[in-house]
Amino acid sequence: MSPESIQNGDSASKSIDQRGMKRKRLQSQEHGSGESSTVNGELRKEPSTEPSPRDDQDDYPVGNFSPDTKLRLGKSISIRDLENRPHGGVQASQDTSTNGRLRQLRSQATILRKFRQQLPIWPSSSTIRSFLQSDRPQVLILTGETGSGKSTQVPQFLLSERWCRNGCIAVTEPRRVAAIGLAKRVGSEMGVRLGKEAKGLGKRQEDSVGWSVRLDNNVSRARGVRTRIKYLTEGMLLRELLRDPYLESYAAVIVDEVHERSIGVDLLLGFLRLLLFGEGDGPKRKNPLKLVVMSATTNVESLKEFFSEGCPDRKALVEQISTEEAEGEWEGFSDAESEAFASKKPDAPKKAHVAHPQDNKLAKAQVGPVSSYHVEGRQYPVKIVYLNEPTQDFVESALSQIFEIHRKEPLPGDILVFLTGQDTIESLERLINQCAQELDRKLPRVLTLPLFAALPQAAQQRVFERPPSFTRKVILSTNLAETSITVPGVRYVVDSGKVKVKQYRSRLGLDSLLVKPISRSSSIQRQGRAGREAPGICYRLYTEPDFLQMENETMPEILRSDLSGSVLSMKACGISDVAEFPLLSPPPRDALEKALIHLLQLGALNDSGDITEVGKQMSKMPLSPNLARIIIEASQPELDCLEDVIDIIACLSVENIFINVVSDEKREQAHEARQNLYRREGDHLTMLATVQAYLSEHSNRKAWAEKYFVSHRAMQSVMDIRKQLLAQCVQMGLSSNSSFQNSEPEKRTVTILRCLLKGFMGNIARLMPDGSYRTILGNQTVAIHPSSVLFSKKVEAIMFSEFVFTNKSYARGVSSIQMDWIGELLAGSGI
DNA sequence: GAGCACTGC
Predict the structure, then answer these.
(1) What is the pLDDT of residue A822?
(2) Minimal CA–CA distance to A72: which of A90, A89, A55?
(3) How far is the CA of A257 from the C1' of B6 (A)?
(4) Phi first, then psi: what are they for A491, rounded to 5°?
(5) Which residue is nearest to nucleotide B2 (CA to C1')?
(6) Phi and psi (nearest 5°) for A658?
(7) Which part of the chain is the Helicase C-terminal domain (predicted)?
(8) Each residue of A384-400: b (16+ CB within 10 Å) or e?
(9) In whole angstroms, what is the distance from residue A530 CA to residue A538 CA?
(10) pLDDT digit string, tens, across residues A142-164
(11) Backbone region of residue A485 per phi and psi (left: phi > 0; alpha: psi in -120 to 50; beta: other values)
(12) What are residue A416's DSSP bridge partners?
């Protein structure tokens, strides 16, 4: 493909005119305000300012970074990285007394305040508060583009409200790093001590900001401390709902990043709707709960409808509004907002049109249970360039596009390329490096940096480093850079328009992992990555008609996942008819049925569909139902292999513990080194052997891991999860006496495998005369994945922990089993 | 002969 074939002109600017009218308008305002380097420089002079993780959705007008390092971090970097920084943006105090520390925190907060005031959301504070002032439960749907400041400011706005005076606000985030990073940021803005750092102030109450994510709960339990804001991952709030169904400990819940439509968010919205507006059997909470749903996109209507549907006095609300004089103002305001956004008319009436209830005593009564509001973002304009003709090979198109940019555009300005996976990233990396050698000496050098989740942490961190002088970075990334990591310095985005998605097919009980076109919203999100620091260009490796044909939104995760975990959570929360559970995107009935049947087979539900004792125990574990069931099986006193099984389950809960080696030579080497760890019974016992070998290494585990080509990072998570699971089993009274530990290894191995089989009943295949494997339930052909120790081996039958279709059906995590175990098992389970 | 991205007391 020739560079000329890439369109560069009018059609590109047309589409930004349509969608990006705000950006154009913002451009003129923005260059003179906020993000300028003078402000940056000013902040830099403050000795107490540290480079802190930046909220990638809601930027500060000043990056808190030293421009010297050019290190700009997204909402998501490594947790360790966050932990190594002093809390709250304040460096260790020389005055170690509590009062000295608090004084210092307060002065820091005063400095930060003027930057908060420059955030686009700042002027909307009182309007936002006014939506939630009635004495009924209320929902506010708050949309705002990247950089508006909503994740950090909205909780602080609400704190001063009467209904929140002594309460705590929960804010959920989809990622751990985001939750921790935001908590630290907001803590320093408020000038309070973080989490357990807060110890109380004698007679006076001390306010604090905390966070709660798996394996890291940093919320003060001290008597004199009020935790005012708590950032949690979605999963953690779901766990809290199991314990405290009415969330009595919170005055408000803020659900952030709803547009990502994770399973967690969808379930939370369902539970929260029931909690707010659930069947009218009397008040469930002492005080009405307030809910703020925050989303980046404009799809307000479906959210509005979702909550209005659940609201019992919906009719009353509608009548009330239509009889109020100010009717047009409230409804009209939000309509004008969404209309303006949809029809791309600039300067549609906005704030001027809004009646601010705090200015109008009657207005309070006008605010219904469900309202919506939109805040402007802060983003530089990005020009869009489409291909004229569709491409057959996006790797090749990306290659020529990258070099066209490189020849044409001056530095600075790094290139971010969105690809589908490790394979395409590595092949493009090779191609670029070949071409770069023949590059004109006068042109800047090219530094190619791959970025995907399976890449070791140190290699991932390289995208944050400043390149050598006269060098352009070309970052080749998966979707990781779309939401989780914000790469600094990017002005050019090359978008393949593709993504690899995992989709569960309940009929086959199989995940497929296939390359698909992205959605329009995802395409816009990728484009936005070019306009973080300066105006940018997004080169789409597809045509404009292709763009127009894309789905509007990415399919919500709940429609493409195994629902057994979600259904178990619902059942544990007392939802008897799961088909009635309110979901924004209800999954098809057969997907729910499949999940119910699976839970029945596992013994989590009984024949009438009620949750069993085993099911209740399973629901408390931070594991999929399959894995949770295995733990419970292993805890039976007569089997007693709990500790060994926990070691295996911990490995199954993290990414691959073995390092992927690229070259053939290294692969041989790794294979050789791992011989001591490999077990002929299969991958699960190999995992056990690896954990045990790692545990018995006391001197230098890092070196040990390197020697065996084992991922040290993965093993550290295995250790954490193992510890957590052991503690939880003790707490749940799942026993483990070690009498059996001394029995013959052979017998122990069989016991362990039979426990695993209890959770992987559907995942069994036997060897056919032609040498292939076929599943017992479903009679599907399945191949042992090349990463398995049993790859190319023939055994009587296999059990596997994962069943994934890529270019064919693969079994991953495979163990050898015997046919006669299966008969007993199936007889016992009623299949 | 091959591995999208997240998450959980």
Answers:
(1) 87
(2) A55
(3) 13
(4) -120, -15
(5) A786
(6) -95, 140
(7) 398-574
(8) bbbbeeebeebbebbbb
(9) 7
(10) 998 888 899 999 999 999 999 99
(11) beta
(12) A475, A493
Give me the pLDDT at residue A741, please: 55
Instruction: For strand B, give the nucleotides within 7 A of a protein CB.
Output: 1-9
Straight-line distance from the first to the last Cα atom of chain A, in angstroms, rounded to the nearest whole number: 56
* Protein residue closest via CA to C1' of B7: A235
> Strand A138-144 and strand A193-194: pairing?
unpaired
Q: Where are the alpha helices (DSSP H) in A293-343?
A: 300-310, 314-323, 327-343
DSSP A353: G
Q: What is the pLDDT of residues A794-807, one digit of tens each?
A: 999 999 999 999 99
Contact A174, A557 (CB under 8 A): no
Which residue, A648, A722, A632, is CA-closest to A683? A648
Q: Say if CB A73 and CB A64 are below 8 A apart.
A: no
- pLDDT tens for A712-739 read 999 999 999 999 999 999 999 987 655 5
Q: Provide, in whole angstroms, the distance separating residue A728's CA from nucleotide B6's C1'.
A: 23
A356-361: long-range contacts at Cβ-Cβ below 8 A with a sequence spacing of 24 or more?
A356/A126, A356/A127, A356/A130, A357/A127, A357/A130, A357/A131, A357/A133, A358/A126, A358/A129, A358/A130, A360/A326
- Name which residue leads in pLDDT, A135 or A681: A681
Residue A474 has pLDDT above 50, yes or no: yes
What would the two tokens of residue A412 be? 């600075």
Task: Please state, in angstroms and rounded to a whole number, the distance separating the CA atoms of residues A786 and A784.
Answer: 6
Residue A626 has phi, psi (to 5 degrees) of -55, -55
Choice between A809 and A831, residue whose per-residue pLDDT is larger: A809
Q: Which residues pair with A775 in a beta bridge?
A: A765
Residue type, A457: Q
Q: Are A551 and A519 in contact (CB under 8 A)?
A: yes
Strands A138-144, A370-375: parallel, antiparallel or unpaired by DSSP?
A: parallel
> Phi, psi (5° rounding) for residue A426?
-70, -35
Q: In angstroms, how far is B3 C1' from A666 CA? A: 17
Q: How far is the CA of A41 from the C1' of B5 (A)?
A: 36
What was the pLDDT predicted at A247? 93
Which protein residue lies nearest to nucleotide B9, measured between its Cα and the C1' atom? Answer: A728
For residue A718, give the amino acid letter. V
Q: pLDDT-derived band of residue A830, with 50, 70 and 90 as boundaries?
A: low
Residue A657 corresponds to which amino acid? Answer: I
Q: What is the mean pLDDT of chain A?
A: 81
CA A200 to CA A220: how far, in whole Å? 9
Domains and CATH numbers, chain A: 37-375 (3.40.50.300), 390-558 (3.40.50.300)
Q: Is the pLDDT of residue A72 over 70?
A: no
User: What distances in angstroms separate CA A741 from CA A636, A640, A728, A738, one per listed residue?
Assistant: 14, 8, 21, 5
* pLDDT value at A438 more than 70: yes
Condensed to tens digits (0 to 9), the pLDDT of residues A644-670 reads 999 999 999 998 999 887 778 888 889
C-alpha distances in Å from residue A576, one per residue of A247, A568, A580, A610: 20, 11, 9, 7
What is the model's pLDDT at position A703? 94
Nucleotide nearest to A668 (CA to C1'): B1
Q: What number is the average pLDDT over the span A112-139?
A: 91
What confidence score (pLDDT) does residue A20 get? 34
**Predicted confidence (pLDDT) at residue A251 exceeds the cutoff of 70:** yes
In A214-294, which residue ranges form alpha helices assigned H by DSSP? Answer: 234-243, 263-277
Question: What's the CA A470/C1' B9 distance, rounded, in angstroms?
Answer: 50
Name the one residue in this structure whose structure tokens are 């191949």. A783
